[in-house]
Design brief:
By secondary structure, the chain is of the alpha/beta class. The chain has helices at 6-19, 56-65, 69-81, 105-114, 133-145, 162-168, 177-180, 187-202, 215-223, 246-253, 277-286, 309-312, 329-336, 363-377; strands at 25-33, 38-47, 92-97, 120-124, 149-155, 172-175, 206-209, 228-229, 273-274, 292-296, 303-308, 322-324, 348-351, 357-361. The longest helix has 16 residues, at 187-202.
Length: 378
Protein backbone atom coordinates (compact mmCIF):
# COMPACT_ATOMS: atom_id res chain seq x y z
CA UNK A 1 0.00 0.00 0.00
CA UNK A 2 1.30 3.43 -0.95
CA UNK A 3 1.16 6.05 1.80
CA UNK A 4 0.81 9.67 0.67
CA UNK A 5 2.13 12.62 2.64
CA UNK A 6 -0.10 15.61 3.37
CA UNK A 7 0.74 17.53 0.19
CA UNK A 8 0.28 14.47 -2.01
CA UNK A 9 -2.98 13.59 -0.29
CA UNK A 10 -4.24 17.12 -0.94
CA UNK A 11 -3.32 16.87 -4.60
CA UNK A 12 -4.87 13.41 -4.87
CA UNK A 13 -8.16 14.80 -3.57
CA UNK A 14 -8.10 17.82 -5.92
CA UNK A 15 -7.14 15.70 -8.91
CA UNK A 16 -9.97 13.26 -8.20
CA UNK A 17 -12.45 16.15 -8.22
CA UNK A 18 -11.00 17.65 -11.39
CA UNK A 19 -11.04 14.25 -13.11
CA UNK A 20 -14.80 14.18 -12.48
CA UNK A 21 -15.10 17.55 -14.20
CA UNK A 22 -15.39 19.72 -11.08
CA UNK A 23 -13.69 23.14 -11.08
CA UNK A 24 -12.13 22.92 -14.53
CA UNK A 25 -13.04 24.51 -17.85
CA UNK A 26 -11.58 25.38 -21.23
CA UNK A 27 -10.48 28.70 -22.67
CA UNK A 28 -10.18 29.23 -26.42
CA UNK A 29 -7.44 31.27 -28.10
CA UNK A 30 -7.90 32.36 -31.73
CA UNK A 31 -5.52 31.22 -34.46
CA UNK A 32 -5.11 33.71 -37.30
CA UNK A 33 -4.50 33.35 -41.03
CA UNK A 34 -1.76 35.93 -41.71
CA UNK A 35 -2.63 36.39 -45.37
CA UNK A 36 -6.34 37.10 -44.80
CA UNK A 37 -6.19 38.52 -41.28
CA UNK A 38 -9.08 36.32 -40.15
CA UNK A 39 -9.64 33.69 -37.47
CA UNK A 40 -9.34 30.18 -38.89
CA UNK A 41 -9.12 28.14 -35.70
CA UNK A 42 -9.00 28.04 -31.93
CA UNK A 43 -6.76 26.28 -29.45
CA UNK A 44 -8.53 24.89 -26.38
CA UNK A 45 -6.53 25.44 -23.20
CA UNK A 46 -7.21 23.90 -19.78
CA UNK A 47 -8.22 26.22 -16.95
CA UNK A 48 -8.87 25.50 -13.26
CA UNK A 49 -11.08 28.36 -12.01
CA UNK A 50 -12.52 26.31 -9.12
CA UNK A 51 -9.19 25.96 -7.29
CA UNK A 52 -6.59 28.15 -5.64
CA UNK A 53 -3.87 26.76 -7.89
CA UNK A 54 -4.54 28.11 -11.39
CA UNK A 55 -1.39 27.12 -13.30
CA UNK A 56 -2.21 24.25 -15.70
CA UNK A 57 1.43 23.13 -15.81
CA UNK A 58 1.37 22.60 -12.05
CA UNK A 59 -1.78 20.51 -12.35
CA UNK A 60 -0.42 18.31 -15.12
CA UNK A 61 2.89 17.86 -13.29
CA UNK A 62 1.04 16.78 -10.13
CA UNK A 63 -1.12 14.36 -12.12
CA UNK A 64 1.97 12.82 -13.68
CA UNK A 65 3.66 12.51 -10.28
CA UNK A 66 0.62 10.68 -8.91
CA UNK A 67 0.15 8.55 -12.06
CA UNK A 68 -3.30 9.94 -12.90
CA UNK A 69 -2.37 11.88 -16.04
CA UNK A 70 -4.81 9.91 -18.16
CA UNK A 71 -7.71 10.84 -15.87
CA UNK A 72 -6.89 14.55 -15.76
CA UNK A 73 -6.17 14.86 -19.47
CA UNK A 74 -9.36 12.98 -20.31
CA UNK A 75 -11.32 15.46 -18.18
CA UNK A 76 -9.67 18.50 -19.76
CA UNK A 77 -10.19 16.99 -23.21
CA UNK A 78 -13.92 16.59 -22.54
CA UNK A 79 -14.09 20.20 -21.35
CA UNK A 80 -12.32 21.37 -24.51
CA UNK A 81 -14.64 19.40 -26.79
CA UNK A 82 -17.82 20.50 -25.03
CA UNK A 83 -18.16 23.56 -27.26
CA UNK A 84 -17.06 21.85 -30.47
CA UNK A 85 -20.58 21.56 -31.90
CA UNK A 86 -20.82 25.37 -31.87
CA UNK A 87 -17.48 25.95 -33.60
CA UNK A 88 -17.81 28.70 -36.23
CA UNK A 89 -17.89 27.57 -39.89
CA UNK A 90 -14.55 27.08 -41.63
CA UNK A 91 -12.66 26.99 -38.33
CA UNK A 92 -10.72 24.15 -36.76
CA UNK A 93 -10.32 23.31 -33.08
CA UNK A 94 -6.97 22.29 -31.58
CA UNK A 95 -6.88 20.11 -28.47
CA UNK A 96 -3.80 19.00 -26.54
CA UNK A 97 -2.82 15.51 -25.46
CA UNK A 98 0.38 13.95 -24.17
CA UNK A 99 1.70 11.46 -26.74
CA UNK A 100 2.13 8.68 -24.19
CA UNK A 101 -1.60 8.84 -23.41
CA UNK A 102 -2.82 8.24 -26.95
CA UNK A 103 -3.20 4.53 -26.19
CA UNK A 104 -5.11 5.17 -22.96
CA UNK A 105 -8.57 3.63 -23.09
CA UNK A 106 -9.98 6.78 -21.45
CA UNK A 107 -8.66 8.90 -24.33
CA UNK A 108 -9.66 6.40 -27.03
CA UNK A 109 -13.20 6.36 -25.66
CA UNK A 110 -13.47 10.13 -26.11
CA UNK A 111 -12.47 9.89 -29.78
CA UNK A 112 -15.04 7.16 -30.34
CA UNK A 113 -17.75 9.25 -28.69
CA UNK A 114 -16.94 12.20 -30.93
CA UNK A 115 -17.23 10.05 -34.04
CA UNK A 116 -16.32 12.21 -37.04
CA UNK A 117 -13.20 14.18 -36.12
CA UNK A 118 -13.15 16.47 -39.16
CA UNK A 119 -12.09 19.96 -38.16
CA UNK A 120 -10.24 18.69 -35.10
CA UNK A 121 -6.48 19.08 -34.68
CA UNK A 122 -4.85 16.80 -32.10
CA UNK A 123 -1.72 18.49 -30.81
CA UNK A 124 0.94 16.29 -29.24
CA UNK A 125 2.46 18.16 -26.32
CA UNK A 126 5.79 17.83 -24.55
CA UNK A 127 4.31 16.60 -21.28
CA UNK A 128 6.18 13.35 -21.93
CA UNK A 129 8.91 12.26 -24.32
CA UNK A 130 8.16 9.81 -27.12
CA UNK A 131 9.92 6.51 -26.49
CA UNK A 132 8.67 4.73 -29.60
CA UNK A 133 7.21 6.37 -32.66
CA UNK A 134 6.07 3.00 -33.95
CA UNK A 135 3.89 2.49 -30.86
CA UNK A 136 2.04 5.72 -31.71
CA UNK A 137 1.22 4.73 -35.28
CA UNK A 138 -2.01 2.75 -34.64
CA UNK A 139 -3.63 5.57 -32.67
CA UNK A 140 -2.37 8.30 -35.02
CA UNK A 141 -3.66 6.37 -38.02
CA UNK A 142 -7.02 5.92 -36.32
CA UNK A 143 -7.25 9.64 -35.63
CA UNK A 144 -6.37 10.50 -39.22
CA UNK A 145 -8.89 7.96 -40.53
CA UNK A 146 -11.59 9.66 -38.44
CA UNK A 147 -10.74 13.01 -40.03
CA UNK A 148 -8.42 14.59 -37.45
CA UNK A 149 -5.17 16.36 -38.24
CA UNK A 150 -2.01 15.94 -36.16
CA UNK A 151 0.06 18.85 -34.85
CA UNK A 152 3.33 18.91 -32.90
CA UNK A 153 4.11 21.48 -30.24
CA UNK A 154 7.26 23.54 -29.73
CA UNK A 155 9.14 22.69 -32.93
CA UNK A 156 12.70 23.92 -32.54
CA UNK A 157 12.85 23.16 -28.81
CA UNK A 158 13.16 20.11 -26.58
CA UNK A 159 12.86 16.75 -28.24
CA UNK A 160 10.81 18.15 -31.13
CA UNK A 161 13.74 17.90 -33.54
CA UNK A 162 13.96 16.88 -37.15
CA UNK A 163 13.54 13.19 -36.36
CA UNK A 164 10.41 14.04 -34.39
CA UNK A 165 8.92 15.89 -37.36
CA UNK A 166 9.96 13.25 -39.88
CA UNK A 167 8.52 10.41 -37.82
CA UNK A 168 5.17 12.00 -37.00
CA UNK A 169 4.57 13.82 -40.32
CA UNK A 170 2.25 16.38 -38.70
CA UNK A 171 -0.18 18.55 -40.66
CA UNK A 172 0.64 21.54 -38.43
CA UNK A 173 4.04 22.38 -36.95
CA UNK A 174 3.91 24.83 -34.05
CA UNK A 175 7.05 26.92 -33.70
CA UNK A 176 8.42 27.19 -30.19
CA UNK A 177 7.60 30.56 -28.64
CA UNK A 178 11.25 31.12 -27.72
CA UNK A 179 11.98 31.37 -31.45
CA UNK A 180 9.19 33.92 -31.89
CA UNK A 181 10.30 36.25 -29.08
CA UNK A 182 12.10 39.24 -30.65
CA UNK A 183 12.14 37.57 -34.08
CA UNK A 184 11.96 41.08 -35.54
CA UNK A 185 15.45 41.74 -34.13
CA UNK A 186 17.14 38.38 -34.65
CA UNK A 187 18.26 37.30 -38.13
CA UNK A 188 19.24 33.82 -36.91
CA UNK A 189 15.68 33.20 -35.70
CA UNK A 190 14.37 34.41 -39.05
CA UNK A 191 16.63 31.96 -40.86
CA UNK A 192 15.49 29.04 -38.71
CA UNK A 193 11.82 29.90 -39.21
CA UNK A 194 12.39 30.11 -42.96
CA UNK A 195 14.03 26.68 -42.83
CA UNK A 196 11.04 25.24 -40.96
CA UNK A 197 8.73 26.84 -43.51
CA UNK A 198 10.63 25.22 -46.37
CA UNK A 199 10.50 21.85 -44.63
CA UNK A 200 6.77 22.22 -43.95
CA UNK A 201 6.02 23.02 -47.58
CA UNK A 202 7.92 19.92 -48.71
CA UNK A 203 5.91 17.61 -46.44
CA UNK A 204 2.56 19.33 -47.08
CA UNK A 205 2.29 20.86 -43.61
CA UNK A 206 1.54 24.29 -42.19
CA UNK A 207 3.62 26.16 -39.65
CA UNK A 208 1.98 28.02 -36.80
CA UNK A 209 3.86 30.62 -34.79
CA UNK A 210 2.65 30.79 -31.19
CA UNK A 211 3.40 33.36 -28.53
CA UNK A 212 3.18 36.44 -30.78
CA UNK A 213 3.10 39.32 -28.30
CA UNK A 214 4.12 42.43 -30.25
CA UNK A 215 3.22 44.17 -33.49
CA UNK A 216 6.84 43.95 -34.59
CA UNK A 217 6.92 40.17 -34.16
CA UNK A 218 3.70 39.88 -36.19
CA UNK A 219 5.14 42.04 -38.98
CA UNK A 220 8.30 39.94 -39.11
CA UNK A 221 6.37 36.66 -39.26
CA UNK A 222 3.97 37.95 -41.92
CA UNK A 223 6.96 39.14 -43.93
CA UNK A 224 8.48 35.67 -43.71
CA UNK A 225 5.28 34.17 -45.07
CA UNK A 226 4.31 32.30 -41.90
CA UNK A 227 0.70 31.27 -42.63
CA UNK A 228 -0.73 30.85 -39.12
CA UNK A 229 -0.11 32.84 -35.92
CA UNK A 230 -1.48 33.05 -32.39
CA UNK A 231 -0.58 34.95 -29.25
CA UNK A 232 -1.66 37.66 -26.85
CA UNK A 233 -1.21 40.41 -29.45
CA UNK A 234 -3.78 38.70 -31.67
CA UNK A 235 -6.18 37.48 -29.02
CA UNK A 236 -6.03 36.13 -25.47
CA UNK A 237 -7.59 32.84 -24.36
CA UNK A 238 -11.19 33.34 -23.30
CA UNK A 239 -14.77 32.40 -23.94
CA UNK A 240 -15.67 30.91 -27.32
CA UNK A 241 -15.41 32.31 -29.99
CA UNK A 242 -13.38 35.50 -29.81
CA UNK A 243 -12.38 37.47 -32.88
CA UNK A 244 -8.93 38.77 -33.75
CA UNK A 245 -7.88 41.84 -31.75
CA UNK A 246 -8.73 45.04 -33.59
CA UNK A 247 -5.20 46.48 -33.78
CA UNK A 248 -3.79 43.22 -35.14
CA UNK A 249 -6.59 42.93 -37.69
CA UNK A 250 -5.91 46.42 -39.00
CA UNK A 251 -2.19 45.76 -39.14
CA UNK A 252 -2.61 42.60 -41.21
CA UNK A 253 -5.22 44.19 -43.46
CA UNK A 254 -2.92 47.11 -44.27
CA UNK A 255 0.08 45.00 -45.16
CA UNK A 256 1.19 45.06 -48.76
CA UNK A 257 2.38 41.49 -49.10
CA UNK A 258 4.46 41.22 -52.24
CA UNK A 259 6.45 38.01 -52.37
CA UNK A 260 10.15 38.61 -53.07
CA UNK A 261 9.45 42.31 -53.66
CA UNK A 262 12.44 44.26 -54.90
CA UNK A 263 11.48 47.51 -53.12
CA UNK A 264 11.91 48.71 -49.56
CA UNK A 265 8.14 48.53 -49.01
CA UNK A 266 8.26 44.77 -48.40
CA UNK A 267 11.07 44.87 -45.83
CA UNK A 268 10.28 48.07 -43.93
CA UNK A 269 9.82 47.47 -40.20
CA UNK A 270 8.37 49.62 -37.41
CA UNK A 271 10.81 51.49 -35.20
CA UNK A 272 10.61 53.34 -31.91
CA UNK A 273 10.21 57.07 -32.50
CA UNK A 274 10.93 60.00 -30.18
CA UNK A 275 10.76 63.78 -30.41
CA UNK A 276 13.91 64.75 -28.50
CA UNK A 277 17.34 63.29 -27.81
CA UNK A 278 16.54 63.46 -24.09
CA UNK A 279 13.46 61.32 -24.69
CA UNK A 280 15.66 58.87 -26.62
CA UNK A 281 18.00 58.52 -23.64
CA UNK A 282 15.03 57.63 -21.45
CA UNK A 283 13.79 55.03 -23.93
CA UNK A 284 17.20 53.37 -24.08
CA UNK A 285 17.37 53.29 -20.29
CA UNK A 286 14.01 51.53 -20.07
CA UNK A 287 14.77 48.98 -22.81
CA UNK A 288 18.44 47.93 -22.94
CA UNK A 289 17.75 45.73 -25.99
CA UNK A 290 17.13 48.73 -28.25
CA UNK A 291 20.03 49.74 -30.47
CA UNK A 292 18.55 52.71 -32.31
CA UNK A 293 15.53 55.01 -32.24
CA UNK A 294 14.35 57.58 -34.76
CA UNK A 295 13.79 61.22 -33.89
CA UNK A 296 10.81 62.55 -35.86
CA UNK A 297 9.25 65.95 -36.43
CA UNK A 298 6.28 66.11 -34.07
CA UNK A 299 3.95 67.86 -36.49
CA UNK A 300 4.72 66.21 -39.82
CA UNK A 301 6.31 62.97 -38.59
CA UNK A 302 9.25 63.41 -40.91
CA UNK A 303 12.46 61.67 -39.81
CA UNK A 304 15.00 64.09 -38.37
CA UNK A 305 17.85 61.83 -37.35
CA UNK A 306 18.89 58.43 -36.08
CA UNK A 307 19.90 58.10 -32.43
CA UNK A 308 22.14 55.27 -31.22
CA UNK A 309 22.08 53.97 -27.66
CA UNK A 310 25.75 54.81 -27.18
CA UNK A 311 25.34 58.40 -28.33
CA UNK A 312 22.01 59.32 -26.72
CA UNK A 313 23.49 60.26 -23.34
CA UNK A 314 26.00 62.59 -25.02
CA UNK A 315 23.50 64.10 -27.46
CA UNK A 316 25.27 62.58 -30.46
CA UNK A 317 22.97 61.87 -33.43
CA UNK A 318 23.32 60.62 -37.00
CA UNK A 319 21.43 62.34 -39.81
CA UNK A 320 20.76 58.93 -41.34
CA UNK A 321 20.05 57.94 -44.92
CA UNK A 322 16.50 58.43 -46.20
CA UNK A 323 14.81 56.45 -48.96
CA UNK A 324 11.29 56.19 -50.31
CA UNK A 325 9.17 53.07 -49.77
CA UNK A 326 9.32 52.31 -53.49
CA UNK A 327 13.10 52.55 -53.76
CA UNK A 328 14.49 49.33 -55.28
CA UNK A 329 16.46 47.29 -52.78
CA UNK A 330 19.59 47.18 -54.92
CA UNK A 331 19.62 50.99 -55.22
CA UNK A 332 19.23 51.46 -51.47
CA UNK A 333 22.01 48.98 -50.79
CA UNK A 334 24.31 50.69 -53.27
CA UNK A 335 23.69 54.03 -51.54
CA UNK A 336 24.43 52.46 -48.15
CA UNK A 337 27.84 51.36 -49.37
CA UNK A 338 28.85 54.98 -50.13
CA UNK A 339 28.24 56.12 -46.55
CA UNK A 340 31.12 56.73 -44.12
CA UNK A 341 32.45 53.61 -42.40
CA UNK A 342 30.84 54.40 -39.05
CA UNK A 343 27.39 54.80 -40.66
CA UNK A 344 27.55 52.18 -43.39
CA UNK A 345 25.55 49.52 -41.56
CA UNK A 346 23.00 51.80 -39.92
CA UNK A 347 19.34 51.16 -40.82
CA UNK A 348 17.82 53.20 -43.64
CA UNK A 349 15.10 55.71 -42.68
CA UNK A 350 12.18 54.88 -44.98
CA UNK A 351 9.59 57.53 -45.90
CA UNK A 352 6.30 57.59 -47.77
CA UNK A 353 5.54 59.83 -50.75
CA UNK A 354 4.76 62.74 -48.41
CA UNK A 355 8.12 62.41 -46.67
CA UNK A 356 6.59 60.99 -43.49
CA UNK A 357 8.44 58.34 -41.53
CA UNK A 358 7.26 54.84 -42.50
CA UNK A 359 9.84 52.69 -40.69
CA UNK A 360 13.36 51.41 -41.06
CA UNK A 361 15.07 48.96 -43.39
CA UNK A 362 17.90 47.18 -41.62
CA UNK A 363 21.02 46.23 -43.53
CA UNK A 364 20.42 42.53 -42.81
CA UNK A 365 16.98 42.73 -44.45
CA UNK A 366 18.37 44.61 -47.46
CA UNK A 367 20.92 41.89 -48.08
CA UNK A 368 18.54 38.96 -47.57
CA UNK A 369 15.87 40.60 -49.77
CA UNK A 370 18.36 41.15 -52.57
CA UNK A 371 19.56 37.55 -52.24
CA UNK A 372 15.97 36.23 -52.37
CA UNK A 373 15.22 38.30 -55.48
CA UNK A 374 18.40 37.02 -57.15
CA UNK A 375 17.56 33.39 -56.34
CA UNK A 376 14.08 33.87 -57.83
CA UNK A 377 15.63 34.93 -61.14
CA UNK A 378 17.97 31.93 -61.31
Amino acid sequence: MRILDGAQAGWASRLALAADGHGLSAAYQPIIDCARGTVVGYEALARFPGYTEKNPETWFAAARALSVSDQLEAATLRAALSARRHLPPNCFLTVNISPDLLNSELIRRIWREEGNLAGLVVELTEQAAIDSYRDLEPDLNQLRSAGALIAVDDAGAGYAGLRHLLSLRPAIIKIDRDLIHDVDRDEAKRALIEMLGTFASRVDAWILAEGVETAEELDALAGLGVPLVQGYYLGRPGDPWARIAGEAALRLASRNQVEHSTTLRAITEPAVTVHTVEEAAGVFASDPRLQTVVLVDGENRRPVCLVHAAGAAMGVVNDGMRANLDTPVHEALARCMTRPDVERFDPVLVTDNAGRFAGIARMERLITALTAAHETLL
